[in-house]
Amino acid sequence: MFLKRDPRFVSRLTRDTLALIMAGGRGGRLSSLTDWRTKPAIPFGGKFRLIDFPLSNCINAGIRRIGILTQYKSHSLIQHLHRGWGFLRGEFGEFVELIPAQQRMDKPLWYAGTADAVYQNIDIIKAHEPSYVLILAGDHVYKMDYGAMIARHVEADADVTVGCVQVDLEQAKSFGVMSVEENGRVTALTEKPAEPEHMPGNTNQALVSMGIYVFNREYLFGILREDAENFSSSRDFGRDVLPAAIARHRVHAYSFSDPVTGKQAYWRDVGTVDSFYRANQELIHEEPELDLHDDEWPIWTYQAQLPPAKFIHDQEGKRGIAIDSIISGGNIIAGAEVRRSVLFSQVVVRAGAYIEASVVLPHVSIESQARIKGAIIDEGCTIPAGTVIGEDLEQDKERFHVSPGGVVLVTAEMLGQEVAHVR
Predict the structure, then answer these.
(1) Contact status, residue 402 vs residue 393, Cβ threshold 8 Å
(2) Which residues are annotated as a binding site?
(3) Binding site for alpha-D-glucose 1-phosphate: residue ranges?
């Protein structure tokens, strides 16, 4: 096959690709975590933000032309991008370009859906003259070489290629479920079905869309114009554009798998409080599926210049210790105990406090003798001395948000506090 004879083929494809990251959604199922920030700006994994994963995948795959479409409460996202993603060189044709929602059409409307967001910016896409347009979600956690997917798109002579993963049937109810022929051609896409269709030969799992698409440029323009003229459309790729494409054109599936083992690769949609909590907790395992220490596929981000984490006091019952945990820079564990938890930067835990199986976002102060278990503490909170969270969920429900899985989400507003810094 010609790909084997020319190892530079994939790199030429990625250089001729424009990536568009959809970063405008609120993510309402994340409750108060998105009250003041768009979903892709949510901190993850001790030092990153969700947007860092698709951005890092692009950079590592050789895609250096990236547009980020923003809309809902994007200030903290824009601030993060300005601080951490300004290292690309414009004179080399490289960029991370912010594309905010604007009054660009005859009617002054916000983006009506994912497809409309791209349609309203066709002129910007044209100006960059890519051969391929890669559409990405800005709020999933995974490491993926998009070059391999683009190469498969070209090999299959597809009009559009959809990235997909295998999930359990119950989980598939929250996604777009795909029906696929043996050659990879997609025959149907059903959004959030009550009874998902299982994969051929596997009655326990379904093939679902990752919200990642590779389009041929001119084909994308044509099908978006058709969608814009359809007054019954909700202007969404998964609900409208792709089903219309499947009926008439060449839509292929690209199964996201580990290139070494061939098994399902790590991918998480952290769209709920419970899934966000679980994905963070998975990182503290001895050998987590998502290896953040991988030098060959690093996750890039902005990080402030902070001192190392510090553990102080060596008194019986008041030792500063952390076990099976992730502790970020600028943290002080002062005579407190932290177990199986993820602590982001500039967190202070004072004497006698105890934290277990929790996720603590940046700029949090946990005062003496507080006890926290199975919780997410949002940015900027001060947990008063002696406070108990996570031990009596019925009591917690009176003040905080308790997820269906029993995770307690605490924000500064719930504590009657104001947050002075930008989130």
Answers:
(1) yes
(2) 111, 176, 191-192, 209
(3) 111, 176, 191-192, 209
Q: Which domains does the chain have, with CATH numbers?
A: 7-283 (3.90.550.10), 310-415 (2.160.10.10)
| Confidence at 249, pLDDT banded by 50, 70, 90 | very high
Sign for the CA dihedral angle at 266, 269, 270, 275 comes to negative
Q: Is the pLDDT of residue 5 over 50?
A: no
Rg (CA), the chain: 23
Q: How far apart are CA 274 and CA 405, in angstroms?
A: 6
Number of H helices, E strands in the chain: 12, 31
Q: For helices 52-61 and 146-155, give the axis angle rounded to 10 degrees.
A: 60
308, HSE (Cβ side, Cα atoms, 13 Å): 3
Share of the chain above pLDDT 70, in %: 95
Give the bridge partners for 165, in sequence order.
208
Lowest mean pLDDT among 197-206, 263-272, 395-404: 197-206
Q: List for the chain the helix, strand, coil content (%; round to 5).
A: 25, 30, 45
pLDDT digits (tens, 9 = 90+) for 51-70: 999 999 999 999 999 999 99
Concatenating the DSSP letter of every residue in 205-273 gives EEEEEEEEEEEEHHHHHHHHHHHHT-TT----IIIIIHHHHHHHS-EEEEE-B-TTT-SBPPEEE--SH
Residues pairing with 22 in the sheet? 69, 137
pTM: 0.93
Confidence of residue 6 (pLDDT cuts 50, 70, 90): very low
Is residue 101 within a helix (H) or strand (E), and if so which, with residue range?
Answer: none
Tokens of 345: 């930067």
Distance CA 287, CA 18 (A): 34
